[in-house]
Amino acid sequence: MSQEIEGADKVFKALADASRRKVLDLLYTENGQTLSALCERLDMQRQSATQHIEVLISANLVSVVWKGREKLHFINPIPIHEVYERWVRKFEKNRLGFLYDLKVQLEGENDGKK
């Protein structure tokens, strides 16, 4: 399996869980949080939160930076953007093309110009 496909599989697996999506939302709101700060907002034990964060780190959705004795967690939006480019954007293109065609059809061939 290519590294690109394996990476996308990890991203999809990570995003499939509501708790992991909540971690990403928390980091989006306030990037660079400690595990303790995340646990306060996650309503779960430290061990469970750590397991979810490890999945996110494995998928490269979260990166860790040590600041002294603190381990700070940061969101990495690049894998999500790659999934968007590969899996979502092509579907949007068709939808936007359809909407454009509908607009032309409703407004007439002269683009609404008189």
Q: Summarize this, please?
A:
Keywords: DNA-binding. This protein has 114 residues and is mostly helical.
Q: How would you write the strand order of the largest sheet?
A: 1-2
| Helical content class | 55-70%
- CA distance, first residue to last residue: 57 Å
β-sheet strand percentage: 5-15%
What count of helical segments does DSSP give? 5
Can you write the helix and strand succession as a string? Answer: HHHHEEH
State the major sheet: 2 strands, antiparallel
CATH topology category name? Arc Repressor Mutant, subunit A
Tell me the domain tally.
Answer: 1
Q: In terms of per-residue confidence, which ranges show pLDDT below 50 for 5 or more consecutive residues?
A: none
- Over all CA atoms, what is the radius of gyration? 20 Å
According to CATH, the homologous superfamily is: Winged helix-like DNA-binding domain superfamily/Winged helix DNA-binding domain
Overall SS class: mainly alpha
Looking at the overall shape, the CATH architecture is Orthogonal Bundle
Morphology: elongated
CATH class: Mainly Alpha
Strand tally:
2
Mean pLDDT: 87
List the helices and strands and how they pair.
Blueprint (H helix, E strand, L loop, with lengths): L2 H13 L2 H12 L5 H8 L3 H13 L3 E6 L2 E6 L2 H30 L7
Antiparallel strand pairs: 1-2
Helix pairs in contact: 1-4, 1-5
